[in-house]
Structures are given as C-alpha cells and as structure tokens.
Design a protein that fits this description.
69 residues; alpha+beta; two-stranded antiparallel ribbon; 2 helices; 33% helix; flat
C-alpha cells in the first residue's frame, strides 16, 4: 500500500526473513534499521496458517551467524 508514496530508490523484498537479513548485511557504520510492522507478535499469518516467526530471533540469529565469519 505504501509503494506509490515512495519517491527514493528502494529494493522490494516480500519475504520478511530475507528482508531482515538483507538489511542487516548491508548495514553501514552509524546506520539504523527500523524493523516495523509486527511488534511483539511471534508468528506470521500466511494464507490463514500461523507460522512461528520472531523479528528479534532473526536479528539475534543473524548476529550469531556472522560474528564468527
């Protein structure tokens, strides 16, 4: 719904996990990433089925995976 109002270059990624990981992997020093829209929910409702998904867990897992690289 917000796409028509965006007037700067951007990359669209509909997979939330991929979008979070892409954002984190391109983060530059002194930058900020805002992960918004789900709040405290720990699931995604995809076509009527609730699947476990936590933005916080995704960020923590990404950091853990990339710390040792």
């Amino acid at each position: 719904d917000i796409l028509p109002g965006i007037d700067v270059p951007f990359q669209k990624e509909v997979d939330r996990r991929k979008a979070i990981r892409l954002s984190l992997s391109t983060l530059k020093s002194k930058s900020v990433i805002l992960i918004a829209g789900k709040g405290h929910e720990e699931y995604q409702d995809i076509m009527g089925k609730k699947n476990h998904f936590s933005d916080k867990e995704e960020v923590i897992n990404f950091i853990r995976e990339t710390e040792n690289v």
